[in-house]
Amino acid sequence: MTRIPSLFDRKSFCVLPIIHAFVKPDGRAGLCCMNGSERIGNTNDNTFQEIYSSNNTSLRTIREKMILNEELPESCQKICGKDDLYAHNSYRVESNKIFRKQFVEEFETLDQIINNEKYFYVDIRFSNLCNLRCIYCKPQESTRVAEIKKMHFSLLTSTGNDSNLLDFMQANLDHLVEINFAGGEPTIMKEHYDVLDMLIASNRVKDIKVRYNTNLQSLSLGKRNVIDYWKQFPKLHLAVSLDDIGERCEFTRDGSDWKELIENIKTVKQQVPHAFLTLNPVVTMFNIMYMPEIIEYYTTETKLFNLKDLWLMPVSGEETHCINVKALPADIKQQVVEHYKETGAIEISQLKSLLDDMMSKDWSDLLPDTRVFIRDIEQTRGKNFLKTYPELATIMDV
Ligand code: SF4
Fold first, then answer.
1. Separation of 36 CA from ligand 1 center, angstroms?
2. Ligand 1 — pocket residues by CB below 6 A?
3. How many angstroms does the Cα of residue 35 sit away from the middle of ligand 1?
4. Taking phi first (over 0 means left), then psi (-120 to 50 degrees means alpha), and beta for anything else, what does residue 27 get?
5. Nearest CA to ligand 1 atom 4
6. How far, in Å, is the centroid of ligand 1 from the Cα of 387?
7. pTM (2 decimals)?
8. Tens digits of residue pLDDT in 301-320
């Protein structure tokens, strides 16, 4: 008989498809935020409870494959096949570590695991409502990107059509230990405040870790001020999406006001001192050269973040491969390496991993796509790429 703790020794095992609910802004339900391809339903067609029921054959099949056949789904292999990236554990390894204790306490048999309907960790993206139009975001992730791309849609939601979000949350309140808010931008979403109100009314605020992926550009919605809410949640983690400094930051995170954003970070640090803040830059070919200065600025100069709380995220998605660091020409890659050596940044393990990743593949045949990508930014957003990034002139072939 399989002992439950021994599941954690298997490379084919991930707790998330068992104890985690993940839904995209347009209602597509999957296994986790890293796995964009696996589908187990859509909240615009079924309720949350139907999708996360043990009767959902798509969900059951994945669990059975993992537990009984000892196989990680192929889509997961692509993401978590390696156990680390940029000197951090893979999401599978990290999630198994975080939820192991509760998992082992909760389950006694494999059958219970396969049929589980109790969710400890919820990451439901209510909509794509956003105040920014970051250059690497898809229309499905930001209403403002959808608008400038002139899509046939703007606002997408996962919580319409009687999907019964609050019923699902209520049903899981007793065992919920972690909730992640992302979007779009959660601080401007009504549903986010409704869920916080429910958690406060349940008296479980002290037990639940509340996590955000936020651009911190806005701290309120109407009369609801998010600072007032955050003061009540002792286990609060804000992963702040902040790619660069000043004008370059406003270029990639189009629509943002960098100075206002810095003031908002200071407000949070002052008024919610228990909040755990991590710096989460999305790494592209645009900011890789500046990363030593970016880190110096946010950690040593302003002390807004701690160096150990840096989480570099490679730009993800096939349509952004052309701005991935691997697509840089060889001579610029070499300049980046030299710069990291000169500044001593190469000693920072995450930056060393970033360089290794950059050098691991040559995607420079994508540079024609890079130019199209940049021209599109210039046309749709009225930006001047070479004014902001003169040192990258060679990639524009001028
Ligand atoms: S194995 Fe990786 S991709 Fe698959 S559900 Fe777990 S964390 Fe997500």
1. 10
2. 14, 16-17, 31-32, 34-35, 72, 76, 79-80, 91-92, 95
3. 6
4. left
5. 76
6. 40
7. 0.92
8. 999 999 999 999 899 888 99
Nearest-CA residue for ligand 1 atom 7 is 92
Residue 322 has pLDDT above 60, yes or no: yes
SS3 per-residue string spanning the chain: CCCHHHHHHCCCCCCHHHHEEEECCCCEEECCCCCCCCCCEECCCCCHHHHCCCCCHHHHHHHHHHHCCCCCCHHHHHHHCCCEECCEECHHHHHHHHHHHHHHHHCCCHHHHHCCCCCCEEEECCECCCCCCCCCCCHHHCHHHHHHCCCCCCCCECCCCCCCHHHHHHHHCCCCCEEEECCCCHHHCHHHHHHHHHHHHCCCCCCCEEEEEECCCCCEECCEEHHHHHCCCCCEEEEECCCCCHHHHHHHCCCCCHHHHHHHHHHHHHHCCCCEEEECCEECCCCCCCHHHHHHHHHHHCCCCCHHHECCEECCCHHHHHHCHHHCCHHHHHHHHHHHHHHCHHHCHHHHHHHHHHHHCCCHHHHHHHHHHHHHHHHHHCCCHHHHCHHHHHHHCC
Question: In the prediction, which pLDDT does 396 show?
Answer: 85
Confidence check: pLDDT of 1 > 70: no
Ligand 1, atom 3, lies closest to the CA of 76
pLDDT value for 3:
85
Asked if residues 84 and 93 have their Cβ atoms less than 8 Å apart, the reply is yes
User: If you measure from the C-alpha of residue 61 to the centroid of ligand 1, how many angstroms do you get, rounded to a whole number?
Assistant: 15
Q: How far is the CA of 310 from the centre of ligand 1 (A)?
A: 22
Nearest CA to ligand 1 atom 8: 32
Helix axes 349-360, 330-343, angle to 10 degrees: 170
Q: How far is the CA of 384 from the centre of ligand 1 (A)?
A: 39
How many Å lie between the centroid of ligand 1 and the Cα of residue 17? Answer: 8
For the chain, what's the residue count? 398
Ligand 1 atom closest to residue 79's alpha carbon, by position in its atom list: 3
Give the position, in ligand 1's atom list, of the atom nearest the Cα of 33.
8
